[in-house]
Amino acid sequence: MPVPEFLRELRTHVGHDPLWLSGVTGVIFDDHDRVLLTRRSDNGRWALLAGILEPGEQPGDAVVREAFEEAGVRVLPERLAAVMVDPPVVYPNGDQATYLSLVFRCRYLDGEARVNDDESLEVRWFALDDLPADVTSHQREKVRVALRDTETTWFALSKPEPESGIEPEPEAAPAGP
Questions:
Q1: What is the pLDDT of residues 95-131, one digit of tens each?
Q2: 114 lies in which domain range?
Q3: 3 domain-assigned
Q4: Distances from the Cα of 103 to the Cαs of 2, 6, 19, 146, 164, in angstroms?
Q5: Do the record's keywords include Nucleotide-binding (predicted)?
Q6: Which of 55, 84, 89, 117 is the most buried (most CB within 10 A)?
Q7: What is the CATH number of the domain that holds 21?
Q8: How many domains does the chain have?
Q9: Which residues contact 90 (CB under 8 A, 6 or more apart)?
């Protein structure tokens, strides 16, 4: 999988140690309310399109870039749907990372959804009631919050303050990758 140059340079200093990184996830819907998924080449699982923010890159630009790089589609980010921390990941080469994920609800504009780089084995549109079984609960949570009919951003809370009156939604604490 392509590693951004800034991250490659950083890894020369920290090796495989855990890194805290900023990332974007695109929950991309077409006109038939289907969601676009890729089957990842690193683990073989179906997942939403996602990627690392480049230094200085605007998050909205990053999700547009990732959609085109990974799947050959142009998208319009409609809103920031959620801010959450993804479960820690260990890549096949031993690199460890945890991502602060900015989850965007995106509208498909054009382009033929296809494998467009070496990060994916397959790219496909899925009906919401027909998501592949290997889509993680954390990925499903991202789809769920992107579907909310609201203009507000959802923030994951692991331990709400009792005085705030804010309670996490039942699916807010997914069980790992």
A1: 999 999 999 999 999 999 999 999 899 999 999 999 9
A2: 15-149
A3: no
A4: 21, 22, 19, 8, 24
A5: no
A6: 84
A7: 3.90.79.10
A8: 1
A9: 96
